[in-house]
Amino acid sequence: MLNSPVWHPFTQHGIEPPMRRAVSARGAFITDAEGNRTFDAISSWWVTTHGHRHPTITAAIEQAARTLNQVIFAEYTHDAAEQLARGLLAVAPPGLAQVFYSDSGSTAVEVALKMALGHFFNRGQKRHRIVVLEHSYHGDTIGTMSVGARGVFNLPFTPLMFEVERLPFPDGSGARMLEAFETLCRSGDVAALLIEPLVLGAGGMCMYRPALLTALRDIATRHGVLLIADEVMTGWGRTGTMFACSQAKISPDILCTSKGLTGGSLPLAATLATADIFESHLSTDRAKMFFHSSSYTANPIACSAGLANLEVWKTEPVQGRIDRIAHQLEGLLVATGNTVENPRRTGTIAAVDLVVGDSGYLSDVAPRLRAFFRSRHMLIRPLGNVVYLMPPYCSGADEIGAAWDTILEAAEAVSKGKL
Ligand SMILES: *Cc1c(COP(=O)(O)O)cnc(C)c1O
Predict the structure, then answer these.
(1) 317-415: which CATH topology?
(2) Whose CA is nearest to atom 15 of ligand 1?
(3) What is the whole-number distance in angstroms between the Cα of residue 339 and the centre of ligand 1?
(4) What is the mean pLDDT of residues 324-334?
(5) What is the pTM of this model?
């Protein structure tokens, strides 16, 4: 039996060592009960952008908690939600007009799917098919698993999952993917293309060129298909720009954001939609309203943290930090040697594939790698045989360099069968 009643996410308690106990975190480091300071090289599963406990965000949370806690958002609005919505629209790709709050990346995507289907339903158009990209990940609820890649992690749930159309992940030119999308669109019943722009995160840090996203947008537009950008991971500077879509110079019809929305301090998500999608739900007919809510919709404390995050972006050289990290990672990728394959980078995300025989998700090299990284005080979690860095923007060049060296050291050990 475990000596804790806590059931941890994505954890096989039967083989994992006991969890380390985090007692504090600051900047790019997490301190555990034994006093170990660990470099958070993956931003605590991609949420921490400016670093842990950024003073501006922490102060905003303290201030908000003294004034207003959760209030029912179907009866009230409040300043934090209003200002954050305006702030989000100001930094998001142009053309988005309305902000719907929820509380996690998964719910932001569920909301997006419901908006897309509701849009066509309310307009009496028979469009219901969803198209996604191979290797995609959009969350762990039944709906978001359905639109994500299938694998051992969702096998037990397949009886409840719905079918979607899948485009092949782009090879060199991406022509096969674009053709497949065009063909599907011609059927006339596709509602939306749901896509992680530029980087497919949990699917293995798979990266593709902005030009392909632009081309997908063009096809969608020509066929009246909605484009849903899941920027839950890619948003807030991860790919080098505030949102990944802007590198392709496109605007989605619906944009999902969460993770970095509060700088990684509190759970909050938002789904941004065009006026067109909002207006298809706008009516004197109650049956056309958008039927969705989370109990904690637009939590005032979380919204205040989101506002403080925007403030940090406005008042601190965040873009400069991102550019510096991107530049350093690009340099590190040049000399990776032959123990890793497919070195790649987009913005502050750098990834390599380790050369191991069995590269599946359950490949047992992953736990050994994690133990190795842990012994080096690095929080690095391989995705199967893919190892990546996604550090907070406050990370120092020394820390990033050391984390990269540790990855290469691990790769070397794996290639020699020593790990
Ligand atoms: C993490 C993630 C999600 C799910 O977000 P949760 O907050 O974990 O529910 C959805 N989409 C993408 C692209 C993600 O990286």
Answers:
(1) Aspartate Aminotransferase, domain 1 (3.90.1150)
(2) 233
(3) 30
(4) 97
(5) 0.97
